[in-house]
Design brief:
Layout: H1 3-9, H2 11-20, H3 22-28, E1 36-39, H4 43-57, E2 63-66, E3 79-84, H5 90-98, E4 105-109, H6 115-119, E5 122-125, H7 138-150, H8 156-167, E6 179-184, H9 188-203, E7 206-211, E8 227-231, H10 237-244, E9 249-252, H11 257-275
Parallel strand pairs: 1-2, 1-3, 3-4, 4-5, 6-7, 6-8, 8-9
């Protein structure tokens, strides 16, 4: 069994641990009403997108999500939160050092004493969720689970759905398809982006992700019988019916969207195995992007 498969299977346990940290996290994360930015790279950027949408929807304050190099220079926030599994990503370290003097900075990481942790004023550690695989699964979802719990959500239904996602058969045979599209709305747009990235990384698949209604504005033109279109969250039934008429296989996710992502992780692992790929060491990728200069 690959490290990726083991890490996928551990997610319900990791989410329970994250839920137990909710009170501790609330003491560290910015207070309700603060205007904040959440930064991340790759998978962590997509989790930042979901966190920002969830925080605003909960009425906790204006929240922006950026990958660090695209954060508008000079824009001031009451706090900056960064997500970094390894704690070594160059762009995150630079962003923390560039924060305006006096701006509170908080890091969510799996690795204590890393450069990101050293650069941040405060940190929350998810050490148990760290991973051997280059491809992120459980750290990303555990970080998101932590935020959801800290924002006041009861994670027990999501945890139960994740157990279902691991136990039940996949909704289709991944090997029978060539093209995978993920649709989201509000906080699940970040999850759709992450789902597409996961299949690209682990199994070199042709993947796309869109805010759901944007899919009808052009991208649907390449849908065909070898396509899967997977909806994460509450997506309009009329849109999914239009997609089905293209001949594509439509998966209307019925589980908690974070648990749907667990099912997608399983698809990535299954397809990687079918292609003879090592999902723990994808080509051209490393655990962290660290620049020499």
């Amino acid at each position: 069994m690959s490290a990726l498969e083991q890490e996928i299977a551990s997610q319900p346990q990791m989410w329970r641990a994250a839920a137990a940290m909710a009170a501790e996290a609330r003491e560290v994360l910015p207070a309700a009403g603060a205007r904040i930015a959440v930064l991340g790279c790759g998978t962590s950027w997509f989790m930042a997108q979901s966190v920002a949408a969830l925080r605003e929807a909960a009425g906790l304050g204006e929240t922006d999500a950026f990958t660090p190099t695209e954060m508008p220079p000079g824009r001031r926030y009451d706090a900056v939160v960064v997500i970094s599994r390894s704690g070594t990503t160059t762009e995150i370290v630079r962003a923390l050092h560039a924060a305006p003097p006096g701006t509170p900075t908080i890091a969510i990481s799996a690795v204590p004493d890393s450069p990101v942790v050293q650069a941040a004023a405060r940190s929350i550690f998810l050490e148990a969720a760290d991973e051997q695989s280059v491809v992120q699964t459980r750290f990303a979802t555990t970080a998101l689970a932590l935020f959801r719990a800290a924002f006041g959500e009861d994670l027990r239904p999501a945890i139960a759905d994740a157990a279902r996602a691991l136990a039940e058969p996949l909704p289709f045979d991944p090997v029978a398809f060539e093209h995978f599209v993920f649709l989201g709305r509000a906080w699940t747009v970040g999850l759709a982006n992450e789902a597409a990235l996961k299949l690209r990384e682990a199994c070199q698949a042709w993947t796309e992700a869109y805010p759901a209604m944007e899919y009808r504005h052009g991208p649907i033109s390449v849908a065909e019988p070898h396509s899967v279109v997977w909806a994460l969250g509450d997506i309009e039934a009329e849109l999914l019916a239009q997609v089905a008429r293209t001949g594509a296989t439509v998966v209307a996710g019925e589980l908690d969207p974070m648990a749907e992502l667990v099912r997608i992780h399983r698809v990535a692992g299954r397809l990687a195995a079918a292609k003879g790929l090592d999902p723990d060491q994808p080509r051209h990728l490393t655990r962290s992007v660290v620049l020499e200069s």
